[in-house]
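Exercise 7. Given the components listed, write out the predicted structure of the assembled complex. Treat all entries as one system.
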Amino acid sequence: MKQFYAAVGGIVEKNGSILILRRSSDKDFAAGSWEVITGRLEAEENPSRGIIREIEEETTLRAEVILPVNTGFFYRGNRDYPMIIIDFWCKYLEGTVELSWEHSEYRWVSLQDAAVDLNLKPFQRGIQRILSLKNALPTDFDFSIFR
Amino acid sequence: MKQFYAAVGGIVEKNGSILILRRSSDKDFAAGSWEVITGRLEAEENPSRGIIREIEEETTLRAEVILPVNTGFFYRGNRDYPMIIIDFWCKYLEGTVELSWEHSEYRWVSLQDAAVDLNLKPFQRGIQRILSLKNALPTDFDFSIFR
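Answer.
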């Protein structure tokens, strides 16, 4: 039976904008590219807890998961690293971004802009799904029922 | 870096009802319990393709993924099997259920009933999220934008 490494992606949303970050030039994989929050799961870690930990480690922000919005498979760099990724729609709760060594820059961009930003291609499907759901759900929809 | 086994769950919906199946008494894990479609990913397999393959293998139904709705971590039986699971909301497309050796019975039950059915506890969060989204989204919501 096949084993995988597991990654999580966090699309952190604050009032219709999402946080994007630029990977440091020091990173061993995809250095310099723009992304949402990403990280690898630790042992015994629930994916929805793992992404909240990663958001905190990489930005110091406090956030909560709304819903997983996309999943994928890829090789991270080479074929020794078969990896599954789960992207989550997360809601910003509080804090100000303070970057770790993993990123060199950050920006908040509108969901509309992010959904068509080719630099964010690996995360685009998740971003587009969030945009579709936000547009279709009532403005008073109570996301806390997802908890 | 920790490796995981990866499982997928498929909550197959047809007009507000979902398919539940009873695990055969021959199964090595959780024999006799009711569940939605579940299975393990094959090598190099995208989770959203894997669940469609599992649905076909276990029921012969044709279905498509709408959205991932829940994720989790558990040990499958013992600590040598750390496992991540991703549950998907899937839409029934066509076919009649023909069970494999893995299941002994099946039923279609309403989302409302399934959401409170304690026999389906591991899948309840995903089922409840589907019910919430279905209740809140416009009846003419075009789910094909998720593809």
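Discussion: The two ends of chain A are 32 Å apart (CA to CA). Residues 47-59 of chain A form the longest helix (13 residues).
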